[in-house]
Protein backbone atom coordinates (compact mmCIF):
# COMPACT_ATOMS: atom_id res chain seq x y z
CA UNK A 1 0.00 0.00 0.00
CA UNK A 2 2.92 2.34 -0.61
CA UNK A 3 2.27 5.62 -2.33
CA UNK A 4 4.74 4.90 -5.13
CA UNK A 5 3.45 1.36 -5.60
CA UNK A 6 -0.19 2.40 -5.97
CA UNK A 7 0.67 5.13 -8.44
CA UNK A 8 2.88 2.83 -10.51
CA UNK A 9 0.16 0.17 -10.76
CA UNK A 10 -2.53 2.66 -11.77
CA UNK A 11 -0.33 4.42 -14.33
CA UNK A 12 0.62 1.07 -15.87
CA UNK A 13 -3.01 -0.09 -16.00
CA UNK A 14 -2.41 -3.01 -13.64
CA UNK A 15 -5.27 -1.82 -11.41
CA UNK A 16 -8.00 0.79 -11.52
CA UNK A 17 -8.10 3.90 -9.37
CA UNK A 18 -11.83 3.34 -8.81
CA UNK A 19 -11.19 -0.07 -7.23
CA UNK A 20 -8.49 1.37 -4.97
CA UNK A 21 -10.82 4.19 -3.96
CA UNK A 22 -13.64 1.77 -3.13
CA UNK A 23 -11.32 -0.29 -0.92
CA UNK A 24 -10.16 2.85 0.87
CA UNK A 25 -13.74 4.04 1.36
CA UNK A 26 -14.67 0.69 2.92
CA UNK A 27 -11.76 0.99 5.38
CA UNK A 28 -12.64 4.57 6.23
CA UNK A 29 -16.28 3.73 6.92
CA UNK A 30 -15.13 1.01 9.33
CA UNK A 31 -12.68 3.41 11.05
CA UNK A 32 -11.86 1.90 14.49
CA UNK A 33 -9.60 4.80 15.53
CA UNK A 34 -12.00 7.80 15.53
CA UNK A 35 -9.75 9.22 12.83
CA UNK A 36 -12.42 10.18 10.27
CA UNK A 37 -14.89 13.06 10.45
CA UNK A 38 -16.43 12.66 6.99
CA UNK A 39 -16.10 10.06 4.22
CA UNK A 40 -16.22 11.71 0.78
CA UNK A 41 -17.54 8.82 -1.31
CA UNK A 42 -19.06 10.67 -4.27
CA UNK A 43 -16.07 12.93 -4.71
CA UNK A 44 -13.57 10.11 -4.34
CA UNK A 45 -15.24 7.90 -6.94
CA UNK A 46 -15.53 10.81 -9.38
CA UNK A 47 -11.85 11.73 -9.01
CA UNK A 48 -10.80 8.09 -9.34
CA UNK A 49 -12.91 7.64 -12.48
CA UNK A 50 -11.22 10.71 -13.99
CA UNK A 51 -7.81 9.15 -13.32
CA UNK A 52 -8.86 5.87 -14.97
CA UNK A 53 -10.17 7.77 -17.98
CA UNK A 54 -6.79 9.44 -18.48
CA UNK A 55 -5.00 6.08 -18.30
CA UNK A 56 -7.51 4.51 -20.71
CA UNK A 57 -6.84 7.33 -23.15
CA UNK A 58 -3.11 6.71 -23.07
CA UNK A 59 -2.30 9.68 -20.85
CA UNK A 60 -0.40 9.99 -17.59
CA UNK A 61 -2.55 11.15 -14.64
CA UNK A 62 0.50 12.07 -12.58
CA UNK A 63 2.92 10.77 -9.94
CA UNK A 64 0.14 10.21 -7.38
CA UNK A 65 -2.21 8.45 -9.79
CA UNK A 66 -5.06 6.86 -7.85
CA UNK A 67 -3.45 7.36 -4.42
CA UNK A 68 -6.27 7.84 -1.87
CA UNK A 69 -5.64 10.45 0.81
CA UNK A 70 -7.36 12.44 3.52
CA UNK A 71 -6.98 15.91 4.97
CA UNK A 72 -7.17 17.32 8.46
CA UNK A 73 -10.53 18.98 8.90
CA UNK A 74 -9.15 22.50 8.54
CA UNK A 75 -8.42 22.30 4.80
CA UNK A 76 -11.12 23.85 2.62
CA UNK A 77 -12.95 21.20 0.61
CA UNK A 78 -15.28 22.71 -1.97
CA UNK A 79 -18.91 22.33 -0.96
CA UNK A 80 -18.22 21.41 2.68
CA UNK A 81 -18.00 23.53 5.84
CA UNK A 82 -14.44 23.74 7.14
CA UNK A 83 -15.02 22.74 10.76
CA UNK A 84 -11.46 23.10 12.12
CA UNK A 85 -12.59 20.44 14.58
CA UNK A 86 -15.13 22.74 16.20
CA UNK A 87 -18.80 22.12 16.97
CA UNK A 88 -19.42 25.82 16.39
CA UNK A 89 -18.43 25.41 12.70
CA UNK A 90 -20.47 22.33 11.81
CA UNK A 91 -22.97 24.55 9.97
CA UNK A 92 -20.46 27.11 8.65
CA UNK A 93 -20.94 28.22 5.03
CA UNK A 94 -19.42 25.64 2.66
CA UNK A 95 -16.04 26.34 1.14
CA UNK A 96 -16.23 27.84 -2.33
CA UNK A 97 -13.10 26.10 -3.58
CA UNK A 98 -10.50 23.57 -2.49
CA UNK A 99 -7.42 24.53 -0.52
CA UNK A 100 -4.40 25.01 -2.76
CA UNK A 101 -2.71 21.87 -1.38
CA UNK A 102 -5.72 19.79 -2.45
CA UNK A 103 -5.64 21.41 -5.90
CA UNK A 104 -1.98 20.38 -6.32
CA UNK A 105 -2.53 16.81 -5.14
CA UNK A 106 -5.53 16.35 -7.42
CA UNK A 107 -3.53 17.64 -10.38
CA UNK A 108 -0.98 14.91 -9.59
CA UNK A 109 -3.67 12.22 -9.69
CA UNK A 110 -4.39 11.79 -5.97
CA UNK A 111 -7.95 10.99 -4.84
CA UNK A 112 -9.45 12.80 -1.85
CA UNK A 113 -11.46 10.36 0.27
CA UNK A 114 -11.99 11.84 3.76
CA UNK A 115 -11.66 14.67 6.23
CA UNK A 116 -9.88 13.74 9.45
CA UNK A 117 -10.14 14.45 13.16
CA UNK A 118 -8.16 17.07 15.09
CA UNK A 119 -8.02 19.05 18.33
CA UNK A 120 -10.56 21.88 18.27
CA UNK A 121 -9.08 24.79 16.30
CA UNK A 122 -5.74 22.87 16.34
CA UNK A 123 -5.13 23.94 19.96
CA UNK A 124 -3.72 20.79 21.52
CA UNK A 125 -1.29 17.89 21.17
CA UNK A 126 -3.67 14.98 21.84
CA UNK A 127 -6.69 15.00 19.42
CA UNK A 128 -9.06 14.85 22.35
CA UNK A 129 -12.06 16.44 20.69
CA UNK A 130 -15.21 17.23 22.68
CA UNK A 131 -17.47 16.89 19.62
CA UNK A 132 -15.84 14.40 17.22
CA UNK A 133 -14.27 12.16 19.88
CA UNK A 134 -10.76 11.13 20.91
CA UNK A 135 -8.59 9.63 18.19
CA UNK A 136 -6.96 6.34 19.21
CA UNK A 137 -3.42 5.22 18.45
CA UNK A 138 -3.50 2.29 16.00
CA UNK A 139 -0.59 0.62 17.82
CA UNK A 140 -2.44 0.62 21.14
CA UNK A 141 -6.06 1.73 21.12
CA UNK A 142 -5.87 2.62 24.81
CA UNK A 143 -3.44 5.43 23.95
CA UNK A 144 -3.72 8.80 22.23
CA UNK A 145 -2.53 9.35 18.69
CA UNK A 146 -1.06 12.77 19.45
CA UNK A 147 -2.28 15.99 17.94
CA UNK A 148 -3.51 18.21 16.75
CA UNK A 149 -3.30 16.22 13.47
CA UNK A 150 -4.09 12.94 15.21
CA UNK A 151 -6.77 11.86 12.77
CA UNK A 152 -4.36 12.23 9.86
CA UNK A 153 -1.66 10.22 11.61
CA UNK A 154 -4.02 7.48 12.79
CA UNK A 155 -5.53 7.07 9.31
CA UNK A 156 -2.10 6.38 7.82
CA UNK A 157 -0.69 4.38 10.75
CA UNK A 158 -3.83 2.24 10.87
CA UNK A 159 -3.65 1.40 7.17
CA UNK A 160 -6.83 3.28 6.26
CA UNK A 161 -4.94 5.53 3.82
CA UNK A 162 -1.38 5.70 2.48
CA UNK A 163 -1.21 9.52 2.61
CA UNK A 164 -2.72 12.31 4.69
CA UNK A 165 -2.22 16.02 5.16
CA UNK A 166 -2.01 17.78 8.51
CA UNK A 167 -0.96 21.13 9.89
CA UNK A 168 1.76 22.00 12.38
CA UNK A 169 1.89 25.14 14.52
CA UNK A 170 3.86 23.97 17.55
CA UNK A 171 4.29 20.27 16.77
CA UNK A 172 0.94 19.10 15.42
CA UNK A 173 2.42 16.98 12.60
CA UNK A 174 5.63 15.94 14.33
CA UNK A 175 4.08 14.69 17.58
CA UNK A 176 1.43 12.38 16.05
CA UNK A 177 3.92 11.17 13.44
CA UNK A 178 6.31 10.14 16.22
CA UNK A 179 3.65 8.58 18.45
CA UNK A 180 2.11 6.63 15.54
CA UNK A 181 5.33 5.40 13.91
CA UNK A 182 5.23 7.53 10.75
CA UNK A 183 7.25 9.98 8.72
CA UNK A 184 5.93 13.55 8.90
CA UNK A 185 7.21 16.90 7.69
CA UNK A 186 6.89 20.37 9.19
CA UNK A 187 8.42 22.51 6.42
CA UNK A 188 10.26 25.79 6.56
CA UNK A 189 7.62 28.31 7.61
CA UNK A 190 5.59 29.20 4.53
CA UNK A 191 7.30 26.54 2.41
CA UNK A 192 4.09 24.71 1.49
CA UNK A 193 0.82 26.34 0.39
CA UNK A 194 -1.43 27.61 3.18
CA UNK A 195 -4.18 29.09 1.01
CA UNK A 196 -7.52 27.65 2.08
CA UNK A 197 -6.29 26.35 5.45
CA UNK A 198 -8.15 27.54 8.55
CA UNK A 199 -5.62 29.54 10.59
CA UNK A 200 -4.52 29.12 14.18
CA UNK A 201 -1.32 31.20 14.55
CA UNK A 202 -0.32 32.80 11.25
CA UNK A 203 3.31 33.31 12.19
CA UNK A 204 3.76 29.60 13.09
CA UNK A 205 1.22 27.68 10.97
CA UNK A 206 2.42 25.24 8.29
CA UNK A 207 1.05 22.21 6.49
CA UNK A 208 2.70 18.93 5.64
CA UNK A 209 2.19 15.26 4.73
CA UNK A 210 2.24 11.97 6.66
CA UNK A 211 3.42 8.70 5.10
CA UNK A 212 4.66 5.30 6.23
CA UNK A 213 7.79 5.46 4.06
CA UNK A 214 10.22 8.23 3.25
CA UNK A 215 9.88 7.76 -0.53
CA UNK A 216 6.15 8.45 -0.33
CA UNK A 217 6.68 11.47 1.87
CA UNK A 218 9.19 12.84 -0.65
CA UNK A 219 6.81 12.41 -3.60
CA UNK A 220 4.00 14.21 -1.79
CA UNK A 221 6.27 17.01 -0.59
CA UNK A 222 7.75 17.61 -4.04
CA UNK A 223 4.26 17.89 -5.51
CA UNK A 224 3.11 20.27 -2.79
CA UNK A 225 6.24 22.42 -3.06
CA UNK A 226 6.74 22.21 -6.80
CA UNK A 227 10.47 21.66 -6.27
CA UNK A 228 12.94 18.77 -6.31
CA UNK A 229 14.31 17.62 -2.96
CA UNK A 230 17.45 15.95 -4.32
CA UNK A 231 20.58 16.51 -2.21
CA UNK A 232 23.70 14.63 -1.05
CA UNK A 233 23.62 12.99 2.37
CA UNK A 234 24.75 15.60 4.92
CA UNK A 235 27.84 14.78 6.96
CA UNK A 236 27.96 17.46 9.65
CA UNK A 237 25.35 16.14 12.06
CA UNK A 238 24.85 16.95 15.74
CA UNK A 239 22.55 15.69 18.48
CA UNK A 240 20.94 18.56 20.38
CA UNK A 241 21.66 18.37 24.10
CA UNK A 242 20.71 20.50 27.07
CA UNK A 243 16.94 21.04 27.08
CA UNK A 244 16.50 18.28 24.49
CA UNK A 245 18.26 15.69 26.70
CA UNK A 246 16.10 16.30 29.77
CA UNK A 247 12.88 14.47 30.67
CA UNK A 248 13.55 11.60 28.25
CA UNK A 249 12.24 8.08 28.72
CA UNK A 250 14.97 5.43 28.80
CA UNK A 251 14.00 4.07 25.36
CA UNK A 252 14.45 7.52 23.81
CA UNK A 253 17.83 8.06 25.50
CA UNK A 254 19.02 4.71 24.15
CA UNK A 255 17.71 5.50 20.67
CA UNK A 256 19.57 8.80 20.52
CA UNK A 257 22.79 7.06 21.55
CA UNK A 258 22.35 4.51 18.73
CA UNK A 259 21.71 7.25 16.17
CA UNK A 260 24.76 9.20 17.33
CA UNK A 261 26.95 6.12 16.96
CA UNK A 262 25.49 5.22 13.56
CA UNK A 263 26.09 8.68 12.14
CA UNK A 264 29.22 9.65 14.00
CA UNK A 265 27.27 12.65 15.21
CA UNK A 266 28.61 15.42 17.40
CA UNK A 267 26.72 17.37 20.03
CA UNK A 268 25.34 20.89 19.99
CA UNK A 269 23.25 23.06 22.25
CA UNK A 270 20.83 25.92 21.73
CA UNK A 271 20.79 28.53 24.50
CA UNK A 272 17.71 29.55 26.47
CA UNK A 273 15.41 26.89 24.99
CA UNK A 274 13.16 27.12 28.05
CA UNK A 275 12.60 30.80 27.30
CA UNK A 276 11.94 29.97 23.63
CA UNK A 277 9.20 27.54 24.63
CA UNK A 278 7.63 30.09 26.96
CA UNK A 279 7.76 32.75 24.25
CA UNK A 280 6.16 30.32 21.79
CA UNK A 281 3.34 29.72 24.27
CA UNK A 282 2.77 33.46 24.65
CA UNK A 283 2.72 34.24 20.93
CA UNK A 284 0.50 31.23 20.23
CA UNK A 285 -2.00 32.23 22.88
CA UNK A 286 -2.05 35.89 21.83
CA UNK A 287 -2.32 35.40 18.05
CA UNK A 288 -4.80 32.54 18.41
CA UNK A 289 -6.87 34.33 21.02
CA UNK A 290 -6.98 37.60 19.10
CA UNK A 291 -8.16 35.81 15.94
CA UNK A 292 -11.03 34.20 17.86
CA UNK A 293 -12.25 37.30 19.72
CA UNK A 294 -15.21 37.99 17.37
CA UNK A 295 -16.41 34.38 17.46
CA UNK A 296 -15.95 34.16 21.22
CA UNK A 297 -18.06 37.28 21.66
CA UNK A 298 -20.79 35.70 19.54
CA UNK A 299 -20.90 32.06 20.69
CA UNK A 300 -18.32 31.35 23.40
CA UNK A 301 -20.42 28.57 24.93
CA UNK A 302 -20.09 26.49 21.76
CA UNK A 303 -16.33 26.21 22.32
CA UNK A 304 -14.78 23.31 24.21
CA UNK A 305 -14.07 24.95 27.61
CA UNK A 306 -10.47 23.68 27.51
CA UNK A 307 -9.94 25.56 24.25
CA UNK A 308 -12.08 28.60 25.05
CA UNK A 309 -10.34 29.46 28.32
CA UNK A 310 -6.87 29.35 26.76
CA UNK A 311 -7.96 31.55 23.85
CA UNK A 312 -9.57 34.13 26.15
CA UNK A 313 -6.46 34.24 28.33
CA UNK A 314 -4.28 34.71 25.26
CA UNK A 315 -6.41 37.52 23.88
CA UNK A 316 -5.97 39.48 27.13
CA UNK A 317 -2.16 39.29 27.22
CA UNK A 318 -0.45 42.67 27.46
CA UNK A 319 1.01 43.91 24.18
CA UNK A 320 4.31 44.67 25.90
CA UNK A 321 4.67 41.05 27.01
CA UNK A 322 4.05 39.80 23.50
CA UNK A 323 6.52 42.33 22.07
CA UNK A 324 9.22 40.99 24.41
CA UNK A 325 8.50 37.46 23.19
CA UNK A 326 8.84 38.63 19.58
CA UNK A 327 12.18 40.30 20.29
CA UNK A 328 13.43 37.13 21.92
CA UNK A 329 12.28 35.20 18.87
CA UNK A 330 14.59 37.25 16.65
CA UNK A 331 17.53 36.65 19.00
CA UNK A 332 16.84 32.92 19.25
CA UNK A 333 16.71 32.56 15.46
CA UNK A 334 20.16 34.18 15.30
CA UNK A 335 21.50 31.57 17.74
CA UNK A 336 20.13 28.76 15.56
CA UNK A 337 21.70 30.34 12.46
CA UNK A 338 25.08 30.18 14.21
CA UNK A 339 24.65 26.49 14.90
CA UNK A 340 23.93 25.86 11.22
CA UNK A 341 27.22 27.51 10.33
CA UNK A 342 28.84 24.48 11.98
CA UNK A 343 26.27 21.72 11.36
CA UNK A 344 24.13 20.61 8.39
CA UNK A 345 21.44 18.84 10.43
CA UNK A 346 20.49 18.84 14.09
CA UNK A 347 18.75 15.85 15.67
CA UNK A 348 16.32 16.06 18.59
CA UNK A 349 13.62 13.86 20.09
CA UNK A 350 10.12 14.55 18.82
CA UNK A 351 8.50 13.61 22.13
CA UNK A 352 9.98 12.62 25.49
CA UNK A 353 8.18 9.27 25.58
CA UNK A 354 5.73 6.98 23.82
CA UNK A 355 2.03 7.82 23.58
CA UNK A 356 0.27 8.39 26.92
CA UNK A 357 -2.93 6.54 27.71
CA UNK A 358 -6.35 8.03 27.07
CA UNK A 359 -7.29 7.27 30.67
CA UNK A 360 -4.30 9.28 31.97
CA UNK A 361 -3.15 11.64 29.20
CA UNK A 362 -0.13 13.04 31.05
CA UNK A 363 3.65 13.04 30.70
CA UNK A 364 6.46 13.62 33.18
CA UNK A 365 8.27 16.97 33.03
CA UNK A 366 10.68 17.78 35.81
CA UNK A 367 9.43 14.72 37.68
CA UNK A 368 5.85 16.06 37.75
CA UNK A 369 2.83 14.83 35.84
CA UNK A 370 1.56 17.47 33.40
CA UNK A 371 -1.23 17.34 30.77
CA UNK A 372 -0.07 15.86 27.47
CA UNK A 373 -2.55 18.06 25.61
CA UNK A 374 -0.47 21.15 26.45
CA UNK A 375 3.02 19.74 27.04
CA UNK A 376 3.80 17.08 24.42
CA UNK A 377 5.33 19.90 22.36
CA UNK A 378 8.21 20.33 24.79
CA UNK A 379 10.78 19.56 22.03
CA UNK A 380 8.86 20.75 18.97
CA UNK A 381 7.68 24.23 20.03
CA UNK A 382 11.15 25.79 20.35
CA UNK A 383 12.01 24.77 16.76
CA UNK A 384 8.85 25.78 14.92
CA UNK A 385 8.98 28.99 16.99
CA UNK A 386 11.66 30.17 14.54
CA UNK A 387 10.27 28.52 11.40
CA UNK A 388 12.84 25.74 10.99
CA UNK A 389 12.01 22.70 8.83
CA UNK A 390 11.76 19.46 10.78
CA UNK A 391 11.25 15.93 9.46
CA UNK A 392 10.18 13.20 11.89
CA UNK A 393 11.65 9.74 11.32
CA UNK A 394 10.09 6.76 13.14
CA UNK A 395 12.59 4.57 14.97
CA UNK A 396 12.98 0.83 14.70
CA UNK A 397 13.81 -1.40 17.69
CA UNK A 398 12.95 1.36 20.15
CA UNK A 399 10.59 -0.56 22.41
CA UNK A 400 7.00 -1.79 22.32
CA UNK A 401 5.53 1.52 21.08
CA UNK A 402 6.61 4.02 18.42
CA UNK A 403 9.11 6.80 19.05
CA UNK A 404 10.39 9.37 16.58
CA UNK A 405 13.23 11.81 16.10
CA UNK A 406 13.24 15.25 14.52
CA UNK A 407 15.78 15.95 11.79
CA UNK A 408 16.09 19.73 11.85
CA UNK A 409 17.64 21.97 9.21
CA UNK A 410 18.10 25.65 8.45
CA UNK A 411 15.36 27.51 6.58
CA UNK A 412 15.05 25.95 3.13
CA UNK A 413 17.03 22.88 4.20
CA UNK A 414 14.36 20.23 3.54
CA UNK A 415 16.38 18.41 0.86
CA UNK A 416 19.20 17.57 3.25
CA UNK A 417 16.65 16.27 5.78
CA UNK A 418 15.18 13.89 3.22
CA UNK A 419 18.65 12.70 2.21
CA UNK A 420 19.52 11.88 5.82
CA UNK A 421 16.13 10.22 6.45
CA UNK A 422 16.65 8.02 3.39
CA UNK A 423 20.08 6.98 4.70
CA UNK A 424 18.63 6.09 8.09
CA UNK A 425 15.92 4.01 6.42
CA UNK A 426 18.50 2.21 4.23
CA UNK A 427 20.63 1.51 7.31
CA UNK A 428 17.66 -0.04 9.10
CA UNK A 429 17.67 2.55 11.88
CA UNK A 430 14.33 4.11 10.97
CA UNK A 431 11.18 3.04 9.16
CA UNK A 432 7.43 3.31 9.41
CA UNK A 433 5.73 0.88 11.77
CA UNK A 434 3.51 -1.66 9.95
CA UNK A 435 -0.19 -1.04 10.31
CA UNK A 436 -1.85 -3.40 12.80
CA UNK A 437 -2.65 -6.76 11.23
CA UNK A 438 -0.18 -6.30 8.34
UniProtKB/TrEMBL annotation:
Residues 21-228, 312-417 form the Amidase domain. It comes from the Bacteria. PANTHER family: GLUTAMYL-TRNA(GLN) AMIDOTRANSFERASE (PTHR11895:SF172), TRANSAMIDASE (PTHR11895). This is AtzE family amidohydrolase. The lineage of its organism: Bacteria, Pseudomonadati, Pseudomonadota, Alphaproteobacteria, Sphingomonadales.
